[in-house]
TrEMBL record:
<dbReference type="GO" id="GO:1901136">
    <property type="term" value="P:carbohydrate derivative catabolic process"/>
</dbReference>
<feature type="domain" description="Sulfatase N-terminal">
    <location>
        <begin position="15"/>
        <end position="366"/>
    </location>
</feature>
<dbReference type="GO" id="GO:0004423">
    <property type="term" value="F:iduronate-2-sulfatase activity"/>
</dbReference>
<dbReference type="InterPro" id="IPR035874">
    <property type="entry name" value="IDS"/>
</dbReference>
<comment type="function">
    <text>Lysosomal enzyme involved in the degradation pathway of dermatan sulfate and heparan sulfate.</text>
</comment>
<keyword id="KW-0458">Lysosome</keyword>
<dbReference type="InterPro" id="IPR017850">
    <property type="entry name" value="Alkaline_phosphatase_core_sf"/>
</dbReference>
<dbReference type="GO" id="GO:0046872">
    <property type="term" value="F:metal ion binding"/>
</dbReference>
<comment type="similarity">
    <text>Belongs to the sulfatase family.</text>
</comment>
<protein>
    <recommendedName>
        <fullName>Iduronate 2-sulfatase</fullName>
        <ecNumber>3.1.6.13</ecNumber>
    </recommendedName>
</protein>
<keyword id="KW-0325">Glycoprotein</keyword>
<keyword id="KW-0732">Signal</keyword>
<dbReference type="GO" id="GO:0043202">
    <property type="term" value="C:lysosomal lumen"/>
</dbReference>
<comment type="subunit">
    <text>Monomer. The 58-kDa mature form is composed of two chains resulting from proteolitic processing, the 42-kDa chain and the 14-kDa chain that remain stably associated and form the 58-kDa intermediate form which is enzymatically active.</text>
</comment>
<keyword id="KW-0865">Zymogen</keyword>
<dbReference type="InterPro" id="IPR024607">
    <property type="entry name" value="Sulfatase_CS"/>
</dbReference>
<keyword id="KW-0378">Hydrolase</keyword>
Length: 505
């Protein structure tokens, strides 16, 4: 009798994979990444034991597009998702996902928390049963994430606040989503046998609102954030590049500030409290990650920690993602692999992309390599990636394969050239998109071009450019000075524009 199966059985010594994804998490990490304000004891330990990529970048600073890009190994233009409202298997192609590839090779795959963005962009199932061996786990308290459960310090009423320190005993079900996710991940780990597993754990913090146990604020007094960086729009900023942080403006406590639209500014004392709560949220998640890692057999488990994108903490006067700036697209990427530990952490400075993680984890696990997609027709093949494996960078501190370019590309859509409430210029729906900002980051420069875009046919029009940006990280690492009109850099601008247009013709 012939038995056909879609999964290839792997030997029992195949390494496990634990993928930890935080939400809106810029590299607020003490060790290695050098953020002295961060208290990240457990992530620090992971950095010390593995490899960390100092210049890793997401492909779009919005949850669903970034996660679908990472988990399919393809760019947002290939997946054709820039918002939350389409499922790639129905609108773009039947692409094999990262967990699906592991599942096809004999792994038990499980999703905990926010891995795919829940909803239409993952078929309301988190792509089960194709990506996962069992239905994805979502915390019961997820439904209260944006509810009026914050006790307002001014009047004691329940509000939908941005700043939302809580006591667990006052919260629905007396817990929080990330605590529930940690318990589920620990439960899963207690059930694994010799079959290798791919476990993805998606934490919701430090995404807003900052609904976290109040005790973590005590570890981050406001005074330590008293030094404000340059927090104003960059010189020469084209208005199309601006994020007006509408999700923050929607919160009850922020509304009371009467911050003008779209450019602010936010009162200084509230800026400091936002930063305080963000760092406290990171420490809260770090403690949960420590609990989780205690249950992991690190001698046979690959651990990767990353984020879907960053979040601006006042850079350029912005308090959000929704842009192509480093603050919005730069992410932490930490990988610890059995057999590749070194006495000291290994810092890798090459510019890499979040979609590189697909091929990297496949190679580290010893699975058949995933082919690179055809550059001109990336949507044609079911199983391929537009990223590249980072394993060569992790081996003997190599600079990578010959011919590889170390450039990160990102993009962000807009409905018009000026920030707007309707349509929402931070999160425009596909039908409202009229402009696409394509951006490239080299080791020295960031160049961005905001060009005409047709959402009906997904067509770019380079003949109409609504704005350009050029930042030199050697002299301006915070991207505060747009040099696009500087005559001595005209040759650099033209070369970068040509390269970007070649990538996105």
């Amino acid at each position: 009798m012939l038995i056909i199966t879609t999964a290839t059985q792997r030997p029992p010594d195949q390494p496990n994979v634990l993928l930890i994804i935080l939400d809106d998490f810029r590299p607020v990490i003490n060790y290695g990444y050098g953020d002295g304000n961060a208290i990240t004891v457990n992530i620090d330990r992971l950095v010390q034991q593995g490899f960390f990529f100092q210049n890793a970048f997401a492909q779009q600073a919005l949850c669903a597009p970034s996660r679908n890009s990472m988990l399919t190994g393809r760019r947002p233009d290939t997946v054709r998702l820039y918002d939350f409202y389409s499922y790639w298997r129905q609108t773009s192609g039947n692409y094999t996902t990262l967990p699906q590839y592991f599942k096809q090779h004999g792994y038990r795959t499980h999703s905990v928390g926010k891995v795919f963005h829940p909803g239409a962009s993952s078929n309301f199932t988190d792509d089960f049963p194709l990506s996962w061996s069992e239905p994805a786990f979502h915390p019961l308290t997820d439904e209260y994430s944006n509810a009026a459960v914050c006790i307002d310090p001014a009047d004691g009423r329940l509000k939908r606040n941005l700043l939302c320190p809580v006591r667990l005993e006052t919260q629905p079900l007396h817990t929080l989503p990330d605590i529930e996710s940690t318990e589920e991940a620990k439960r899963f780990l207690s059930t694994v046998g010799r079959q290798p597993y791919f476990l993805a754990v998606g934490y919701r913090k430090p995404h807003i609102p900052f609904r976290i146990p109040a005790k973590y604020l005590g570890l981050h007094p406001v005074a330590k954030f008293a030094t404000l960086d340059l927090d104003y729009p960059p010189y020469g900023l084209p208005t199309v590049a601006w994020s007006s942080y509408l999700d923050v403006r929607n919160r009850d406590d922020f509304r009371q500030l009467n911050v003008s639209f779209p450019f602010g500014p936010v009162p200084d004392d509230f800026k400091l409290r936002i930063r305080q709560h963000y760092y406290a949220a990171v420490t809260f998640v770090d403690e949960l990650i420590g609990e989780l890692l205690q249950e992991v057999d690190l001698s046979r488990t690959i651990v990767a920690l990353t984020s879907d994108h960053g979040w601006a903490l006042g850079e350029h006067g912005e308090w959000a993602k929704y842009s192509n700036y480093d603050a919005a697209v730069r992410i932490p990427l930490v990988i610890r692999a059995p057999g590749m530990q070194t006495p000291h952490q290994q810092k890798i400075d090459n510019v890499v992309e979040l979609l590189d993680l697909y091929s990297t984890l496949v190679d580290l696990a010893g699975l058949p390599p995933v082919p690179r997609c055809d550059e001109q027709r990336p949507h044609k093949a079911t199983t391929c990636t537009e990223g590249k494996s980072l394993v060569p960078l992790m081996q003997r501190n190599s600079t990578g394969d010959d011919g590889d370019e170390w450039i990160a590309y990102s993009q962000y859509p807009r409905p018009g050239t000026y920030p707007s409430l309707f349509p929402n210029s931070d999160e425009p729906k596909l039908r409202h998109i009229k402009i696409m900002g394509y951006s490239m980051r080299t080791d020295r420069f960031r160049y961005t071009a905001w060009i005409k875009f047709n959402p009906d046919y997904f067509k770019r029009d380079w003949s109409t450019i609504y704005g350009e940006e050029l930042y030199d990280h050697w002299i301006d690492p915070q991207e505060n000075m747009n040099l696009i009109d500087r005559a001595p850099l005209a040759t650099v601008k033209d070369a970068l524009r040509a390269k970007l247009q070649e990538k996105f013709p």
